[in-house]
Amino acid sequence: MTPLLHLKDITVAFGGARLLDGAELAVGQGERLCLVGRNGSGKSTLLKIAAGLNEPDSGTRFVQPGSTVRYLAQEPDLSGYATTQDYVEAGLLEGDDPNRAFYLLGNLGLSGLETPATLSGGEARRAALARTLAPRPDILLLDEPTNHLDLPAIEWLEGELKAMRGALVLISHDRRFLESLSRATLWLDRGKTHRLERGFEAFEAWRDEKLAQEEIERHKLERRIAAEEDWVRYGVSGRRKRNQGRLERLRGMRTERREQLRVMGNVRMEAAEGQGGGTKVIDAKGIAKSFGDRVIVDDFSMRVHRGDRIGIVGPNGAGKTTLLKLLIGQLSPDRGNVKLGVGLQMAMLDQNRSKLHPEQTLAAAVTDGLTGVAGDTVMVAGKPRHVVNYLQDFLFSPAQARTPVKVLSGGERARLLLAKLFATPSNFLVLDEPTNDLDLETLDLLEEVIADYQGTALIVSHDRDFLDRVATAIVMAEGDGRFAEYAGGYSDMVAQRGEGVTAKSTVAGKSTKKAVERKPRTATPKMNFADLHALKVLPEKIAAAEIRIAALEQQLSDATLYARDQGKFASISDQLARLRTEKDADEERWLALEMEREALES
Q: Which domain holds residue 96?
């Protein structure tokens, strides 16, 4: 079948270096494709070429005659329009329903009466998203559509995109969003594209398999790629292999948090106050805050202990930032009180991000303002680290450490700010939307750093998968100033609450809340026998595979084997690749089953 859109042999070079080198993109009718790759790999450039906005240095672009293509840019231009409704309606085609513009704007938190010149960056993005969706195009090209959306809007957008009949090409850092919508995956790596005819949920295991096979081929031909690229790329697989241990630790922390909530919820609460001296980070009792007639926080109590990772979720405007400021002492409550633990050293990452000096080198930016350390040294987890070595943890090469900040992309700047944050001595992290502008590999890194962090963390985020991977408890904005705490991650909260975040729309500046409807529970769900059996036997199977893999790797480490017996070398290589693939699949299944078991138990 002829595709609706086809890019072939696309090449784009900047300053002699090829960003795209023979890239291809084929989109069929009704297809759901996610485009993935590291920040700076050329995803947005390829999508702009697909939209017909950029011309490649070489290659061809074909669009089926009569097919409509709509593209969501990261930085939309609304100039020349009197209102947001005018802007959205201008994107409608002949015969389209004019009421659709109002419907889309309302669901994205806009009234249609806003003046484009006064919009924030997030509001402009939501207006652009409404304009892109309005005509129901044959091909929809979306570049980070969830940026600046809260959880109700993200979940609404998922439903809207699932219901559309047209084809979809999607770039996003939101794992849950990608898993929900994609049916095929296009990986852009070192200028070339690799296609998987499965959704994003299968991508990471497939990518690791390809990288492992590439490493074998590289060994066969006795080639060496630059060490700076080696640790950036192949470290991804190594980090994922530590997921089992991290998940086990997180499960233990969530179990402990459930017990804390149980104790606080009964008559033993007062008796528990004197226990664990020095372990309490925040003790909030009956706090409330109003602005005028509007109640933002109403009678909220919470105790945060050392090591907790608390996620705060809810619609935009529900009071998440106000609650955060109350809990960390930046705002005084109208009623109740908040006690902070002694010896707290707080490090904070806000939504606006602290400023980086464009002329500073990366190394200087990280060490700037740090006291008690030498010029090229940072203290991490109480141990001195050379700043160049430390920056490698955040996927910067040694050569980049001496380059100025001004040459970094937006995603690289986000990574540098995280490096600076974690180099600041602290035992209490406050993270407001930390996943903004991060690619998937950097998200993996951030999850690992938070998992290894010895202190406490408060995290405001709309990223459901991220919260599932790091949070020990979720504080949910229930509406009308009420907040409730649930042990576990976002999926645990949904399982306990019976639903996700309750949607809230804003029309003409007035809030309209939907009533919370709890789903009736007729029976406690349980895992079936096959899944329970798999949970029991998979760890043993994985351990046995690791032993076998190590033995095969030892045989391949013989530098003379390939010259002596090419057939044996090929046979061992094939066995090794198959075992790695099977082990990765077993690990992924075990992780999924373990998360399901934990959610059901909670």
A: 5-205
